[in-house]
DNA sequence: ATATTATCTCAATAAGTAATGAGATATTGA
DNA sequence: TCAATATCTCATTACTTATTGAGATAATAT
């Protein structure tokens, strides 16, 4: 759950690239089960295999995604705890001296996660 | 409050550099009033003025900080709505298909912002 | 074993980003 | 106006990162 500065830097760097940000968004939406590299490439509109592999490896090294082999495919999935930790890292700093600025961020989250944060207080599955 | 993909990419790129991340954290803690460029440089342990100016300009272009002239100093301050929007951007994607993964993120925020999110449901001051 | 599918690895090239140092601009006080 | 303070701008150099294409590795089916 806690993210070091080095980890945050790596994660931000990974997220600051168009292809990688698209991959992360795609995998986050794909859910914990993830999807094979080939499907990611197709969804991105045909990225070359080497390029795709490069970005997936970068994301994996940054801890934003993970992979597992399944048959002849390699399935990639988002690592939700890293995303949560990144948010916590930013907000922790944010709150440190001026808690009042956190309200809007929490409000934004509460809005986006309306059904989960208000109706489903169930224990998390993939959090760190 | 809404952040486009291009804005998110710019913000992530800005946050992925050690000096700039340190600046943002410093300014976020400095509060809405901000602090002069020179003080930022000193707090960072003596960065050259050109280097500091370069990074501050980068952050300002990414919408993470803003500046105003005050006497002979230029005061920089964090733009909280961009940070909130960035969080909302990530979480919006996160929630889109799998709301259950948001719970940990919200919990992390609620924990970090305990006093503000639970005791002070006052209207936000700097949100977009 | 061989062919096929799926993905990774490597080397080369191209492009973008950061640090440095010199100098320019703006504000204030003598 | 002149000097001092505070910060920005520009050019150079060094470093890092992304793309491409060829080829290697792993798993499966015939």
UniProtKB/TrEMBL annotation, chains A, B:
UniProt GO molecular function: DNA binding; DNA-binding transcription factor activity
SUPFAM superfamilies tied to this protein: Winged helix' DNA-binding domain (SSF46785)
One Pfam family per UniProt: HTH_20
Keyword Membrane: no
CDD domains in alphabetical order: HTH_ARSR (cd00090)
Domain (HTH arsR-type): residue spans on this chain: 1-98
Keyword annotations: DNA-binding, Transcription, Transcription regulation
Designated name of the protein: Transcriptional regulator
Species the sequence originates in: Xanthobacter tagetidis
């Amino acid at each position: 759950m806690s993210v070091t500065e080095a980890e945050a830097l790596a994660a931000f760097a990974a997220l600051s690239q168009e292809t990688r940000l698209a991959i992360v968004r795609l995998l986050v939406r794909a859910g914990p089960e993830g999807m094979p590299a080939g499907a990611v490439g197709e969804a991105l509109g045909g990225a070359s295999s080497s390029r795709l592999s490069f970005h997936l490896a970068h994301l994996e090294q940054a801890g934003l995604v993970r992979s597992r082999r399944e048959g002849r495919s390699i399935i990639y999935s988002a690592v939700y705890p890293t995303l949560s930790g990144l948010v916590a890292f930013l907000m922790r700093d944010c709150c440190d001296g001026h808690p009042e600025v956190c309200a809007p961020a929490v409000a934004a989250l509460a809005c986006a996660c309306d059904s989960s944060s208000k109706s489903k207080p169930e224990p998390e599955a993939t959090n760190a």
